[in-house]
Amino acid sequence: MSDTLLEVRTLRCERDFRVLFKDLSFTVNAGDVVQVEGPNGSGKTTLLRMLAGLLPVHEGEVFWRGEPMQRVRPMFYEELLYLGHKTGVKDSLTAFENLRSWAALRAPVSDDRLLEALERVGLKGFEHSLAHNLSAGQQRRIALARLFVSDAPFWILDEPFTAIDKKGVAELENLMIQRGREGMAVLMTTHHAPRIEGELKKVTLGRVAA
Amino acid sequence: MWQRFKAWFHKWASPKWFFDMSASWMPWLKGIAIACMVTGVIWGLAFAPQDYQQGNSFRIIYLHVPAAILAQSVFMMMAVAGFVNLVWRLKLADLAVKAAAPIGAWMCFLALFTGAVWGKPTWGTWWVWDARLTSMLILLFLYFAVMALHGAFTDATTGGRAASIMAIVGTINIPIIKFSVEWWNTLHQPATFKLTEKPAMPPEMWVPLLIMVIGFYCYFGYLLLYRMRNEVMEREQRTQWVRELVRKGV
Amino acid sequence: MNATVSAAFTAQLRRDLLLSFRRRQDLANPLIFFVIVVSLFPLGVTPDKEFLSQAAAGVIWVAALLATLLSLDGLFRADYEDGALEQMVIAPQPLFMVVLAKTLAHWLVTGLPLLLLSPVLGVMMFLPADATGVLMLSLLIGTPVLSLIGAIGAALTVGLRVGGVLVSLLVLPLYIPVLIFGTGTVQMAINGQPWTGHVALMLAFLALAIGLAPIAASAALRISVSN
Fold first, then answer.
1. How many whole angstroms separate alpha carbon C125 and alpha carbon C60?
2. Alpha carbon distance B95, B114 (integer Å)
3. Mean pLDDT value across residues A114-127
4. Interchain CB distance below 8 Å, C226 and A77
5. Distance separating alpha carbons of residues C24 and C27, to the nearest angstrom
6. How confident is the model at residue B47 (pLDDT cuts 50, 70, 90)?
7. Residue among C121, C113, C119, C116 at smallest CA distance from C38
8. Is C162 a residue whose pLDDT tops 90?
9. Whole-angstrom distance, CA of residue B165 vs CA of residue C217
């Protein structure tokens, strides 16, 4: 299993005349876990948003399964799961409604599977509570439940382990290992060294002389 | 043929190429603009015959009509540049949208102002809710919208793309607005106030007008390039070639 | 429209309506505004019955337009701020459909109540009774156009802090044709002239707005998200 999913070639990013990164090239293969690391302000989140298609790519090329990204973007979106800082969990919807409305814009999923995902992230008994009445950690878990619902083979996660306890982290790591065996790849930023099978690939930012 | 077009098109992606080329076009535009406007003004104001109904007051047409034509075609041009900016992400197209908007707004204002000045002796009032005046006023609002949107974003590229969408949406709406306003005008007011029809003009009147229109277009071209060049310098200030230019004191 | 796209459309519509009903108080605000603006008019100009019945259609239409404008900020703002909009932009379902569903939800909670309230205001403004039906019809066709055009403005300004004021600058000039024909239709009915042609024209505006506005709004949302 070493199909190349994502390939990045000589990517460059500039903000307000400051070069965040340049000549950035790397590949993500099926089964890989890739950690993007670098000091604060080195452009980690910017890189993830760029690859998710939320920011335009001005210089450099991105390929998805060997095709230029701009040509296959709709296909890419079908295979992508992106989780950013802002999760899009609505205060005035219940945990279940939140997950269901997220899933509705993606592949069809049965209600049972949604409920099961909420159970896996430790929200059993809170399925029908308004997110507003849940703690910050529990709200984060509503967003993380998406990972248990999704069949997407490529995840882009921005600090997925924040605001969840040890048990939650372990559960998430198990999921990544299990899905990794099926060929799923992860590209993420994290301050926590994740426990994974095999090698943790790294992409390091912040070495550009300004 | 297609290959040559593509090669030509690609040149426009280079701000440096534009900067060098525009330097050689600008004197021409400036020269033609001055020649046309001087000829047009002298001919139109001093030699063209009087209007048999309006007397000399009609002579403001030599400012009014070119300004009104420019106000409309600049908006159209802005929409085309906006489209190119959105689809091909051409930096220069973005600059053109930004540079053209205030010029177009000025032309629009000039057309409205000269219209009011013309209206006073002709209709006896500064302003009437004439269909053309009204749609020109709405066009001015649309220019303000594009400019305000461009300025509201901290990131110039994002602001440029947003303004491009507004320019395109505005252009699709202009015919609808004109049509509505004309319909509304006939409903509310009988056609007592009508500008003298243009085609009825004798050549001694419309030839200087045509010269003025050409002069205005060249003047617009000159201003546009001037503003775009400033903008190019500012956005490319970190690049080698701009630094070099600055060092040479251009 | 294939099955999953239409399912996504319904799901999005249901979600947005649910969100609106969970915050019922906010729904009443544009309606109260609508009534207040209309009642300011006789106070500010004249309570003369003759004059008001002439001005009724225009006043009600302008008030409806302003009330819609006031509610536009809510269309995408909350979703932008909590990140839900990002998830919609990168979802495999077409953004066009999402925008259309959100705009329909917006119309159902603002335009439709305005329309239902309009006969009461018609009475307050001495609108001839037989023109009430035409007023409602013109609002039924016109207010969705206001929501659709408004969606473009809301999408362009959602990432900006000054959004509220700017959106009126962007959207009001584009509202003018709807205003002219909306009021015009009612006026013609009052004058006893045939007005069906104008209804057809307004339907054409609506068709154009349904076809084009969501495209512009989607493109605008992608730009706003990337800010």
1. 9
2. 29
3. 92
4. no
5. 5
6. confident
7. C121
8. no
9. 9
Residue whose pair of structure tokens reads 């908006």 in the numeric block:
B75
CA–CA distance, C77 with B93 (Å, rounded to integer)? 29
What are the tokens at B224?
Answer: 């546009």
What pLDDT was estimated at residue A2? 59
The alpha carbon torsion through C100, C105, C108, C114 (nearest 10 deg) reads -90
Chain A interface, mutation test: which of B88, B91, B238, most A Cβ atoms within 10 Å?
A: B238
Rg (CA), chain B: 21
Contacts of residue C192, defined as CB under 8 A and 6 or more positions apart, other chains included, come to none
Q: What angle do CA B247, A15, B154 make, to 5 degrees?
A: 100
Q: What is the residue whose two structure tokens read 């015919």?
A: B175
Nearest CA of chain A to the CA of C19: how many Å? 6
Whose structure tokens read 């003018």?
Answer: C176
CA distance B158 to C169: 19
Query: What would the DSSP string read from start to end of A45-88?
Result: HHHHHHHHTSS---EEEEEETTEEHHHHHHHHHHTEEEE-SS--
Q: Which pLDDT tens digit goes with each residue over A137-188?
A: 899 999 999 999 988 999 999 998 888 888 888 888 889 888 888 889 999 9
Answer for the pair C180, B183: CB distance below 8 angstroms, yes or no: yes
Q: What is the distance between the alpha carbons of residues C151 and C143, in angstroms, rounded to a whole number?
A: 12
| Beta-strand relationship, A4-15 and A59-64 | antiparallel
Q: Per the structure block, which two tokens stand in for C71? A: 């509610």
**Single-letter code of the amino acid located at A53:** G
Per-residue pLDDT tens digits for A60-70 = 999 999 999 98
- Indicate left, alpha or beta for C83 from its phi (over 0: left) and psi (-120 to 50: alpha): left
A15, closest residue in chain C (CA to CA): C227
Q: What would the DSSP string read from start to end of B180-204?
A: HHHHHHHHHS-TT--PPPGGGS-HH
pTM of the entire predicted model: 0.91
Q: What is the mean pLDDT of residues C33-61?
A: 93
- C58 contact B CB<8A: no
**Residue B72 to residue B65: CA distance in whole angstroms:** 11
User: Using CA atoms, how far apart are residues A36 and A47, in angstroms rounded to an integer?
Assistant: 9
What per-residue string of b and e applies to A32-55 under the rule 16 or more CB within 10 Å gives b? bbbbbebeeebbbbbbbbbbbbbb
Does the complex come out with an ipTM higher than 0.95?
Answer: no
Return the pLDDT at B141: 95
Q: Dihedral angle at the C-alpha atoms of B61, B67, B69, B73, nearest 10 degrees?
A: 180
- A155 membership: H or E segment, kind and range: strand A154-158
- Residue A189 vs residue B52, higher pLDDT: A189
Cβ-Cβ contacts under 8 Å for C163 (sequence gap 6 or more): C73, C77, C154, C157
How many Cβ pairs closer than 8 A exist between chain A and C?
Answer: 78
Length of chain C: 227
Cβ-based neighbour number of residue A133 at 10 Å:
12
Chain C contact present for B1, CB below 8 A: no
Give the Cβ contact number of residue A67 at 10 Å: 13
Q: Name which residue leads in pLDDT, C110 or B1.
A: C110
